[in-house]
Amino acid sequence: ISASFEIWFALHLFGHPISAEAAVALESLTQAARYLAFIVPAGIGVQEAGFVLFGHLLGIGADLALAASIVKRLREVNTRASDLTEALLLLSRAGQRSFTREPVELSLLVEEATETLLALAAERGVSVEPSLESTPTSGSYALLLQMVFNLVQNAIVHNLPDDGTVWITTRVQAQDVVLSVDSTGETLSRELVATL
Questions:
Q1: Using N-to-C axis directions, what is the helix angle for 141-157 and 106-123, rounded to 10°?
Q2: 151 and which of 67, 107, 157, 181 could share a cystine (Cβ 3.0–4.6 Å)?
Q3: Which residue has the higher pLDDT, 167 or 77?
Q4: Where are the alpha helices (DSSP H) in 37-61?
Q5: Measured between alpha carbons, how far is 171 from 178 in angstroms, rounded to an integer?
Q6: Judging by beta carbons within 10 Å of its beta carbon (0-12, 13-18, 19+), is residue 73 exposed, middle or buried?
Q7: CA 3 to the chain's CA centroid
C-alpha cells in the first residue's frame, strides 16, 4: 500500500493526479512483471517498462510513467545504500564487540538471503536447495545476515557454469547452531581457504 501511495503522490506532484485504485493497479501490475522477470538483476528495465506499459493502459503518458518509476527506483537505491552503510558501520565496530546481541533465527536469515539471491542463481544456471531446521541463536542480525548472504553468493558465483547446485542447511548440534553452505563448485585447498 505504501508503494502505491508513493506512485499516487509522485504523479500528483507531477500534475497528473490518479485515483488510489489506479495507483494500486499500476504498482501491482509492475510488481507482477518484476517477479515474472526475476532473472533480470534488480529488475533493471523491467520496472520502467512496466510503468510505461501499464501507465499507458491507465492513461498516463510515457514520460510521466517513467518519471514515477525513476522516483521509485531512487528510493530503492537510497534504501539499499542506507542499509549497506549501516552494515559497514556495524562491521567496523564488530572487532570491538560494540554491537548489541539479540535473538536471531538463523534459518530465517538463510531464507532472506536466498530469496534475494535467487535471480543471480537463475542467471548462472545454479539451483539453490535449502534444508532448514529451526536454529535460534543470538548475535547481530545485520552481521549474521551479511555473513549468510556472502556465503551463499560465493557458492553461487564460484560454481559450475551451468547446472550447478548450492545446498544450504541449518541445524542444531548439541548446544551449537550449524550453518552449512556446500556447492558443486571447485573444491578449494586448505592452504587457499586459510588465506580467505
A1: 30
A2: 181
A3: 167
A4: 46-57
A5: 5
A6: middle
A7: 17
* C-alpha cell read off for 170: 541449518
- Over the range 151-181, which residues count as b (16 or more CB within 10 Å of their CB) and which as e? bbbebbeebeeeebbbebbbbeeeeebebeb
Do residues 181 and 151 lie in contact, with contact meaning Cβ atoms separated by under 8 Å? yes
| Residue 18: closest CA among 34, 4, 2 | 4
183 Cβ partners below 8 Å, 6+ apart?
126, 155, 156, 158, 159, 164, 165, 166, 167
DSSP E strands in 44-192: the ranges are: 102-105, 126-132, 136-139, 164-173, 176-183
- Report the C-alpha gap between 152 and 185 in whole angstroms: 12
User: According to the model, what pLDDT value does residue 105 have?
Assistant: 94
Lowest mean pLDDT segment, chosen from 12-16, 157-161, 187-191:
187-191
Cβ atoms of 113 and 123 within 8 Å: the answer is: no
Q: What pTM was estimated for this model as a whole? A: 0.56
* Measured distance CA(107)–CA(177) in Å, rounded: 10
Contact yes or no for 23/55 (Cβ under 8 A): no
Rounded percentage of the chain residues whose pLDDT exceeds 70? 92
Contacts made by residues 89-98, CB under 8 angstroms, sequence distance 24+: 90/140, 90/142, 90/143, 91/143, 91/146, 94/140, 94/143
Residue reference for cell 499516487:
8
